[in-house]
Each structure stands twice: as C-alpha cells, then as structure tokens.
Amino acid sequence: MNKRFVLKFAKYMSLYFLITTTLAIIGFIVFVYLSSKPSHISQLDNIELELYPPYSPQRVEVPKPILELAKQNEADVYVTKLNGEIVYPHDIHANIKSRLIKNAYQSHSIKYKYGTEHYYFVFIYRQGENPNIVNGKEIDVHKLLESMRSNGLNPYEFNINNGHLTFYANSGVDQTDSGLMQKQVQAIFLSWVAIFIANIVSILIISWLIARRLSQPLFYYSRWIQNLSKGKLHQPDARIKNRERTRQTYEELDDAIFTLNKQLVKDRFYHDQIQYYKTKWISQISHDLKSPLTSIYGFSKLVRGATETDQQHLKLISEKADYIREVIDNLSAQFKFETEQMAHHRESFEIQSTVERVISTLGFEKITTVFNFSKEMTFYGNKLYFERMLFNLINNSLDHNAINPNIHLAFKLDDTHLKIDYKDDGKGLPSYKLDELIQKSYTSKKDKSEHGIGLSIIKDAVKFHQGELTLVPSQKGAHFKIHLPTQTQ
Predict the structure, then answer these.
(1) What SS3 class is residue 480?
(2) What share of the chain has pLDDT > 90, as a percent?
(3) How far apart are CA 20 and CA 197, in angstroms?
(4) Is there a contact between 366 and 409 (Cβ–Cβ < 8 Å)?
(5) Mind listing the pLDDT tens digit for each residue in 342-371?
(6) Backbone CA torsion sign across 389, 391, 392, 398
(7) Which of 269, 388, 431, 477 has CB atoms 3.0–4.6 Å from 425's, for a disulfide?
(8) Domain boundaries, the chain
(9) What are the transmembrane regions (predicted)?
(10) CATH number of this structure's domain 260-340, picked from the four choices 3.20.20.150, 1.10.287.130, 3.10.20.340, 3.40.50.150
(11) Given strand 367-371, what is the order of strands in its sheet?
(12) Bridge partners of 86?
C-alpha cells in the first residue's frame, strides 16, 4: 500500500510541478517582453540622410527608399524646420508640435543638413501608446524635437508625469522616460502578482484533488462499516466516479471489509439455519419422549409393593428409561448429521417469508417484491441454497455498482415451476454468455468488477434444484430469469 500511495503523491506532485513550471516560464517571457520593450522608436534610427542625394535644391524631398522603409514599418514621415514648421509633405502647412505631443512615445527625430539649412527628419508610428499631455501650450517644440533625436547626443530628454511633459538635461546616459518606466514596472509587478495568485489557486486545486481522491474512499469505507454495525449487511452508495481505481488504491482495506461483509452474512444465515434446525430438533424430542414418558408415568402409579407383578412393572419402567436415553442420543447424533448435511436437505418452506427474511437480513431498502400467490404457499427444495441464491443476486447488484441500484423481484408459481424475475437499474453486465462470464471470474478471482463469483453460486443453487438460469439482454441494468421445478416431498 505504501508504494501505491507514493506513486499517487508523485503523480499529483508532478502535476503541480508542471503547472508551476509553466507559470514560471510564462512569467519569465512576460518579464523579458516588458523589460525589453523600447520607450522610443528605434527601427529607423540608423538612417543617414546625408547619404541620399536631394531630388531638388529648391524644395525638401524625402528619398523613395526611406518612404518605402517607413511604409513597411507603418510610420508617417515628416520634415520640419528647427522651429517645427512642416516642409514635407508639401501639402501640409502647420507645426509638428501637436502631432509630437499626441504621439510622444511613437515619435523620433533625426537632425540633418539639407543644402545650407538644418532640418529634422521626423517619423511617427501609427500604433502604440498615446499619452495624455495637458501642458501642451507650455512645451518648446525645438526642445521636444531635440529630446526625440536618435543621432548624436540629445541635449534634452523628456519626462511625462501625471500628464505634464517636462525636460531635463541629458547627462550622457541613455535615460528612459520615467512615466513609461513606471508603467512597465507596474505591469511587471501585476504580472508577477497574477502568477503568484495562479500558483496559489493551483495549490488549492491540487490539494482538493488529493483530498478528494484519497479521503473520499475512506469516508465510503467508514459508511460501509457503519452499515455493518447497524445490521445492514451491504455496501453503501459509493458516489465515486472510478470505483475500480479506489479498490486498487485501497486493495487490502477493500478486501478486508468485503470479506467481513460476506462472513457476517454467512454467519447470519448459518445462525438462522441452526435456529431453524434447533427448533425442529426440540419439536422432535418432545414428540419422541412424549409416549415413553406417558408409560413411565402410568406404570409408576401401579407400583405399590414388591410383588412379582410389580417387579415386572419396574422392569418395564427401566426399559423405557433406557429407551429415552437412546432416543436422546440418537436425536443428538441426528441433529449433528442434519446440520452438516444442510446443503443436501430438502424440505417445504414458505416462499414469501423466506424472501422477506433474506431482504431483512441484508437490510437493503431499495427492493420491491411482487408475489402472485398467497403468503402461505410453499416450495419443496433446499432452503439454504434458495437463500444463498437470492442473497448473491442482490449482493451482485450492490457490489458492482457505485450507486446502489433499485431492485425488482417478481415471483410466480404455477403447477410446474417457481418463476423468479430479477431486475436492477445498475450499469448491467458485459456482453458475455453466462458460462463465459462465470468462467472469466474463475480465472481472475481478484477482479471484483466481474459478477462471475456470485453467479457461480447462483448457478449451483439453480442446478441443485434442476432449474434453469437465463441472462436476459437489457439496455440498462442486469436482468435474470430463474425457473425452479416444483416437486413434492
């Protein structure tokens, strides 16, 4: 059992390890992504505009290779003067300031010389974060363009905090916008919090699974033992999805309680049989002793003296007393023989009361019985075999269904046969023939999922009475028909 529990715990711990490892990998990927996410645009930073010859000295143009590269990266291209006035595209007559403020995180500039003038080449990506800046009128557009430069050392860097954009002198170190940094740190923090919560949830789920898988069967066995202590000699409803896996995990415990249940039922039936034969034996003793005791009593009254006639009477009394002693000895020996030969004994017994006593002995309440004859009707056969047959029919239904099924028993008696129709609404039997099902059980007796062991006892009881046992095909549950020939004593 220790090895099985070690394997089970190893399985659940492996599942937990897999979940936590997956969460850790996801967290690491998110962390790397967020920490490496750039705060400024960098895909067009390395363009050297001086290498591209101008199309015309009269007005500013942008070379086609740069426009194609910007199109591929989904960026809008502008050329401005130092004061932010847009000179390219030629159809726009405005200042670049408002566009830069709206797209501060997606904008970048390159300062270059075109002819004798200095310009800014500006590219703005169409997708990304858009900060909400409330102090746009106070912002110097030249400083803003300088803070967004990618070539050379920026004299300024910008910072956005609570909607206010401010500038600070560049110390020579590449500094990231603190507002965006704060958002990245916050996102990373929230990601790790989410992973931590997911880890806690996975621990709770794994703990619940372990508790359910390992403790629920123990509660089932506890209810079974309580049933036995109350005289209900049957297993309770399992309410466990995989009953066979439970039996494999708690094999020794299941076998012990199952064997105890069987032994208690066997002892109960044996005790009832002993009581039955004991009653018969006492009745027989009373009958056999009645006649000689009457003679002893009568002759003793005639004894008055020691005459020859009295001597004869006394001799007769002595003979009768010896006869009584022999009768008692014979009856004792006969009782022992009869109790040892119960399996081969035939007698007439009341059918209905015997059936009701078997059901009462098991203590199972979900059984309905129908009799088409009066309560006093009897059957001539072996009472022990008959009771065992009924017990194993019912016990098979209880033993091989996780939820105890409803059972229906119908008895019909005619001139030739006692007909028994047995049904339950459980999971039913596999599609074997009856003989194959019984034989399968003999070759794998430890497999309690099969009905064969109980069926072999039922078949032996039917065979003893020279009857017929039939397994009726059924879409739901097990269905048997038993025909026992009626015989006279």
Answers:
(1) strand
(2) 9
(3) 11
(4) no
(5) 556 788 889 999 999 888 877 788 899 999
(6) positive
(7) 477
(8) 2-37+183-219, 49-175, 260-340, 347-485
(9) 12-34, 189-211
(10) 1.10.287.130
(11) 367-371, 407-413, 417-424, 479-485, 468-471
(12) 80
Task: Show the tokens assigned to 426.
Answer: 């459980």
Whether 73 and 125 have beta carbons less than 8 Å apart is answered as: yes
- The whole-model pTM stands at 0.43
CATH number for the domain formed by residue range(s) 347-485: 3.30.565.10
Cβ pair 52, 71 in contact under 8 A: no
For 481, the enclosing helix (H) or strand (E) is: strand 479-485
Helix (H) or strand (E) holding 332: helix 308-340
N residues, the chain: 489
**Cβ neighbours of residue 444 under 8 Å, at least 6 residues apart?**
450
**Under DSSP, is residue 470 helix (H, G, I), strand (E, B) or coil?**
strand
Distance CA 408, CA 366 (A): 9
C-alpha to C-alpha distance for 125 and 42, rounded to whole angstroms? 11
Which residue type occupies 305?
Answer: G
List beta partners, residue 282.
none
- Please name the residue ranges forming H helices in 58-130: 64-72, 97-102
CB 158 within 8 A of CB 166: yes
Q: What is the pLDDT of residue 228?
A: 80
Q: Give the separation between CA 418 and CA 130, rounded to whole angstroms.
A: 91
How many Å apart are CA 33 and CA 16, to the nearest integer?
A: 26
- DSSP type of residue 404: P
